[in-house]
Amino acid sequence: RPALSLDPMAGLMLEEVPLARIAAAHGTPVWAYSAATLRRRAGMLKAALFNAGLDASIHFATKANPSLAVVNLLAGEGLGADVVSEGELHAALAAGVPASGIVFSGVGKTRGEMRRALEEDILQLNIESAEEAAILSEVAVSMGRRARCALRVNPDVDARTHAKITTGLTENKFGVPIAMAPDLYARMCAMPGLEPVGIAVHIGSQITQGVASYAAAYQRLGDLVRELRAAGHPVLRVDCGGGLGISYRDETPASPEALAGAIRAGLGGLDVRIMLEPGRWICGPAGVLLAAVVIEKQSSDRRFVILDAAMNELLRPAMYDAWHGILPVAAAAFHAPVSPADVVGPVCESSDTFARDRALPALPPESLVAFLDAGAYGASMSSTYNARPLAAEVMVDGARFALIRERQDHAALLRGQRLPDWTG
Ligand code: LLP
């Protein structure tokens, strides 16, 4: 994690900024993202696709981190956006992503969302069922438009990831079975409100078992492209989805070069524009969640480190048993003796546990810890459970840092609520 380093005086640093300075300026819990890491990773992906000779565009999956500053920075690097709700579409546009770089994915787009997407004239909507195709066509016709769309197919390949984030098996709700795709694509081409432009796939997230499942999916897509074209249908684009994993602990995910190779093997030479929808790979390693120790508690046989961050900030450990590195921030703590500790939050749920038996030094109240690789599906999955306001977010760039999201205050938690003023 090149953006993180240990300074013998200042302790843990993100780029050239001591994390302790960020906590002092903006309090805890607080998210901090490295701009250099975001830029570098966007650049690495672009280079891998380019070097594989692919005509490709990258659409950042904003669900991983919809922060305006993050999406704006990535837009500056030439990335578009993959959005899954009108809220994300609104945020992507507000962040400066051109409509022509926005893809709308998701199994349950409402008519209102379709309308907004068509009004904004985004690049394409990815259709996930025959039922949805019919509705999109109807909505587009009512607006006097034709909707550029791709058909998301479910290739029935096992991405070999956590069951809660695998999406490319027939048992999952996503896409249409690949065997049904030729017939549906033909019907879509005949619908008055649709302009089919290609096909899409996304087999899962945090894929770390090599590129074999990607390769299998892209082979099947390549066959499908040939079959559709043989039937006389236009196929201009293939959206290859996201899913490239990162190393939270000791996983060894495939490289962008290997992914690009799998795309080339399955789809190269077909004269299609390749699209990619990565989220986690770009922003996960760029972010940390900084928290302060509230208190350490010793029960009969366990040591508990209780933080001011909780499952409502970082949900991944509670939801997926996910592992995140946890480091102390103070320089001295790196030389102190360690003992196993359970790292927990203050929320009233036993699942509010970040880690069990983690080797950590003594952590007196108010000392800081950093959760690593928290830039993806961290802040974006936060809630206000236990009436805990959403945490602040900060971006670091070289020796500078800037607040990119204010900490919510308690008044904000009550905003929009009222005691009943009954009618009827
Ligand atoms: N495209 C589509 C259609 C998706 O559903 C997703 C993620 C992505 C792209 C981006 O996938 P990525 O490159 O980030 O793996 N909350 C979970 C991850 C859920 C992913 C959902 N879909 C987690 O924290 O692990």
From TrEMBL:
<protein>
    <recommendedName>
        <fullName>Diaminopimelate decarboxylase</fullName>
        <ecNumber>4.1.1.20</ecNumber>
    </recommendedName>
</protein>
<feature type="binding site">
    <location>
        <position position="377"/>
    </location>
    <ligand>
        <name>pyridoxal 5'-phosphate</name>
    </ligand>
</feature>
<comment type="pathway">
    <text>Amino-acid biosynthesis; L-lysine biosynthesis via DAP pathway; L-lysine from DL-2,6-diaminopimelate: step 1/1.</text>
</comment>
<feature type="domain" description="Orn/DAP/Arg decarboxylase 2 N-terminal">
    <location>
        <begin position="48"/>
        <end position="283"/>
    </location>
</feature>
<dbReference type="InterPro" id="IPR022657">
    <property type="entry name" value="De-COase2_CS"/>
</dbReference>
<feature type="binding site">
    <location>
        <position position="377"/>
    </location>
    <ligand>
        <name>substrate</name>
    </ligand>
</feature>
<dbReference type="GO" id="GO:0008836">
    <property type="term" value="F:diaminopimelate decarboxylase activity"/>
</dbReference>
<dbReference type="InterPro" id="IPR002986">
    <property type="entry name" value="DAP_deCOOHase_LysA"/>
</dbReference>
<keyword id="KW-0028">Amino-acid biosynthesis</keyword>
<comment type="subunit">
    <text>Homodimer.</text>
</comment>
<dbReference type="Pfam" id="PF02784">
    <property type="entry name" value="Orn_Arg_deC_N"/>
</dbReference>
<feature type="binding site">
    <location>
        <position position="349"/>
    </location>
    <ligand>
        <name>substrate</name>
    </ligand>
</feature>
<keyword id="KW-0457">Lysine biosynthesis</keyword>
<feature type="binding site">
    <location>
        <begin position="277"/>
        <end position="280"/>
    </location>
    <ligand>
        <name>pyridoxal 5'-phosphate</name>
    </ligand>
</feature>
<dbReference type="InterPro" id="IPR000183">
    <property type="entry name" value="Orn/DAP/Arg_de-COase"/>
</dbReference>
<keyword id="KW-0456">Lyase</keyword>
<dbReference type="InterPro" id="IPR022644">
    <property type="entry name" value="De-COase2_N"/>
</dbReference>
<dbReference type="InterPro" id="IPR022653">
    <property type="entry name" value="De-COase2_pyr-phos_BS"/>
</dbReference>
<keyword id="KW-0210">Decarboxylase</keyword>
<dbReference type="InterPro" id="IPR029066">
    <property type="entry name" value="PLP-binding_barrel"/>
</dbReference>
<dbReference type="GO" id="GO:0030170">
    <property type="term" value="F:pyridoxal phosphate binding"/>
</dbReference>
<dbReference type="InterPro" id="IPR009006">
    <property type="entry name" value="Ala_racemase/Decarboxylase_C"/>
</dbReference>
<comment type="similarity">
    <text>Belongs to the Orn/Lys/Arg decarboxylase class-II family. LysA subfamily.</text>
</comment>
<comment type="function">
    <text>Specifically catalyzes the decarboxylation of meso-diaminopimelate (meso-DAP) to L-lysine.</text>
</comment>
<feature type="binding site">
    <location>
        <position position="243"/>
    </location>
    <ligand>
        <name>pyridoxal 5'-phosphate</name>
    </ligand>
</feature>
<feature type="active site" description="Proton donor">
    <location>
        <position position="348"/>
    </location>
</feature>
<dbReference type="GO" id="GO:0009089">
    <property type="term" value="P:lysine biosynthetic process via diaminopimelate"/>
</dbReference>
<feature type="binding site">
    <location>
        <position position="320"/>
    </location>
    <ligand>
        <name>substrate</name>
    </ligand>
</feature>
<keyword id="KW-0663">Pyridoxal phosphate</keyword>
<feature type="binding site">
    <location>
        <position position="316"/>
    </location>
    <ligand>
        <name>substrate</name>
    </ligand>
</feature>
<feature type="binding site">
    <location>
        <position position="280"/>
    </location>
    <ligand>
        <name>substrate</name>
    </ligand>
</feature>
<feature type="modified residue" description="N6-(pyridoxal phosphate)lysine">
    <location>
        <position position="63"/>
    </location>
</feature>
